[in-house]
Every structure is written in C-alpha cells, then in structure tokens.
# Entry
Amino acid sequence: MSHLNPTPVLEPLQDRTMILNMGPQHPSTHGVLRVILEIDGENVVRIMPDIGFLHTGIEKTCEAKFYQQVVPLTDRIDYLCPMTNNLCYALAVEKLLGIEIPPKAQWLRVLMNELTRINSHLVWLGTHALDIGAMTVFLYCFREREDILRIFEMVSGQRMMTSYFRIGGIALEPPIGCFEKVRDFAGRFPSKVDEYENLLTGNPIWGMRTKGVAKISAEDALALGASGPTLRGSGVDFDLRRDMPYSGYENFKFQVPLGTEGDVFDRYMCRVRELRESIGIVRQALDGMPEGPIKADAPKVVLPDREKMKTEMEALIYHFKIITEGFTVPAGEVYQAVESPRGEMGYYVVSDGTAKPYRVHMRAACLANLQTIPTMCEGQLIADVVAAIGSIDIVLGEIDR
Amino acid sequence: MGLAPAITNIEELKGHPALQTLLSWHAPAVLGVKFDRDEMSITIDRAHIREACALLRDNPEFPFNYLSDVTCVDWYPNEPRFEVIYHLLSIPKKERVRLKVRLDGSSPVVESITSVWPGANYFEREVFDLFGIRFTGHPYLRRLLMPEDWEGYPLRKDYPVEGYR
# Structure
C-alpha cells in the first residue's frame, strides 16, 4: 500500500515539471486550503494538501470549559452542519453520564439533523457547481438554504451557530407554527431537487467535467479512512445512521445511495439522492413526532425550566449550581460517531470525574477524506483537482479545528 | 439509568472477537482490557501495536477493516504519561474496538501504523504535532496544524495556556 502514502518531496526531479502553489486563498478551496502541485504541463504529477491555516485550538479550549460550555464550540468546528456536531457531542456526554433522552427530544434531533444535512449538501452543491463553472445552481441552492436557515432561526434564535441540542435534551420547545413551516418546506423541496438535477445531471458539460474524473477504488478509499459519500461513491455500503443507529435512527426508513465508479459524478449522485432521502426522514419525523418532554429527567445535569426556576427553590439551586460549577461526569471515556453530511464525525471524550472534560477529541471526517486527494488527482489535469476537492465536500474549519 | 460498573477481567471478556484474536496470537501483548459503557478498550504492549492492527484488519472472520481515528491523551504528571488511542471499526460486522498504547514521557515513541492503514498518516501527524509523540516508520512526520517552526506541543497538559510562551 505504499502507493497511498507517496513521499512528498517537492523539489522537481526533472526540469520538465514545475511546482505550482494553489491557495490558501483560492476561491475553490472552500476555506483556506493550500495545495502544492507538481505539474507537467497541465498534468498533475504529485499533489500535497497543506492544512492548518484555520487551527484555533478548539480541543485545548474544551479542556478549560465546563461540559455544557463546550456545546457552542462544537458549532464552530464544522460551521455548515452545527447541529450534527451538537448532536455528536451531546450523545457522547450523555453516554458518559448514562442518561436516557426522551423520545420527543430524539425525534426533534433527527428532524433538525436531517435539515442540517440538506443545508450542508445545498452549500456543497452550489459551491461545487460554481467551482466547475455552473453559476446558476449556486443561486438556486442558496434560495432553498435560506428557508432552512429561517427554520433554524425559528427554533434556536440563530441562523448558523445554533447550539440547539444540549446535554440531556434540547434547548427549547419549537415555537408554534414551526412544524407547519417544516412541512411546507418538505412539500416543496423535492421539486427543487428536480430543478438542480435538470440543470446538472443530464448536462453534457457537467458530465464531461465529472464522469471518470478523480476516481478512487473502494479498497483505496477504505484504506485511507474515507467516509460518508466519499466512501459510498466508491460502492462501500456503510452508513452509520442505518448500520450503527444512534438517537432513534432505527425508527426511520431510508435508502443509502451508492455509487459504482468512485468518480466525481458518483459522489455527486450520492449526495443528490441523499437530499431526497433526508427530506423523506424529515417527513417521517414530522408524522411520527411523539409527545412528551424535551429534556431528560436529570436535574443535576439539565437546566430547569425558566418558570420552575422562578417558583421552586430546588430548581433555583440546581440552576445556580449547574451554571456556576457545572456538573460532574463519572470518570471514563467514550467514542461516539455520527454520520455527518461529510462522513463519520466522531467525538472522543475523556472524563476524569470533574466538571470539565479531561480531553475532547473530534474525529473530523474531512481530515481523513482529504487524504484521498493525492490518490484521486495524480495523473489528472489541474482543472480536475478543483472538481476533486469540491467532490469530497471539505470544510476547513473541521479539518483544522 | 445508572451506569454498569466497568469490567476489567480478561477472563470475562474473552468472547469479544478482537480480544480473542489478539490472545490467540500473542497473549503477553495484551496488557489490559476494559469494557465500559458498551465500549471495549484493549491496552497493547507498545512493541506490538502495528502487528496487532494488521492482525485485526486481516482476520477473515471478523475484520476490523477501517481505522476511524488515532489520538492521544496526556495523563501528566502520571507515568506512563501518554496514551495513544486507536479506534478501529469493523464495517462488515458493525463493531468498534479501541486499542491503547501507553508511552513514557521520557521516550514517547511508537511504531507507525501507516503501513497497515495509509489513512493513519494525517492522524499520526496531528498527534505528533500536538503531543510530540514520534511514530517510527512514518513516511512524512512533520507538523500538520501548527506552523513548522512552532516550539512545544500545545495539547500536552504542561503546556502553558496563558501568558507569553
């Protein structure tokens, strides 16, 4: 397998190749990714991604915060799917604490998580098409994304950094009229996906730019740790939502779209079909939404309701204690993985029995997916590197943390 | 819901496929086990980690064919100070296992597993960058996230969190 870890010596060996620096401020790098290319004319001989420009030390920051204070930090890792990160962290800490989440909170989490997936995929589709030269799709995608952001604003008060899921449940009951709005969106959205597909799927230019480009085999993708649509595009049938269900996903029926060739087009098709599956899950979640509380019955962990806090002494004491000294978590360690729009998002949380996590590590799906770029791009044209980077849907905030 | 106490007795956990594979291969390589919160952790002797990973990956009946994650925990000032942690996943069997290697603060060196999973490349570079663990046999062990000329390893517990470095 040595071919998957090529020696990245970047001095040109012969006179005919040259080193080209792409990024960190290149518009197609979705953040600040620098890619060092060794090229022979238009062909890529070797390629090496260089990352770290967005490193903010979030993992170190987490060690100085109470458990509940980490939640807003998780939004900022992968800013396109904040709820997925909230969910993964909340599930990890709940597993450490051993608390049970009421069904309504679980279903709301699934509902919001799938809207987040659609939101993230829409940004991906728009920018990916923009990179390859299809401007219109971007405008269409952001039109629908706006609707989702309005829903997020409705439930959490924030458009992007939602922090809506909390340890032990969710922050607030969704406001009146929220579900109708989601249902309205779910009714409209499939026809919008048809619109995107009309623009791209059968488009011969799109086909030429994506079919057979940046291929990766299933074996290579597995060996390099790729996950999510990047892995499924190569035909590996694995989705954490279906195969290792969390947060009540076992109650939902959905298909896992697969590719066969492992090229840019297959990864595109996987994600577009995931959009349709996600909206199906949203509908199921709306139809079967159980009644009941949205927070676990764990007064030492979950903040009391505002009303109770004002009328009951005990609730006020718990509120004061949670805010000022946090809650202690029994010593231990937990690895919780969820299927983020980009792949396996994992949180490894170590507790030493105090109110602050001893160590929080985020397994970034994009970091592993980025490693597939050299295998995908060697021997291809420079323009295809842009298509390849777009097709693995990277978010540099998640890679650098 | 209360938490079930952790099981640390090897005899009780023998049925776990990963542990079974490792014990039948080389029992002294397994230094300890822990089954806690439905998660299996196996501490491996640091000399055997690469072979253990290759063995678990190639086991035909129960292949742990996917490397999810490599990370590290610093238990400063305790010794052995570092715990390098590998999360493996079996895609066909839908099962996870966690391997651990304990390293002394004086010589935090462990064999790289990039020859088993090339995907360990960035994860090991990140651990090297932030903890200063050296992975022998790694093809390109350079800083990944921090600048090349950075001094110190930020995620170590004795790294100053405020003030001038």
Remarks:
- Chain A touches chain B through 48 residues (CB under 8 Å).
- The mean pLDDT of chain A is 87.
- Residues 103-132 of chain A form the longest helix (30 residues).
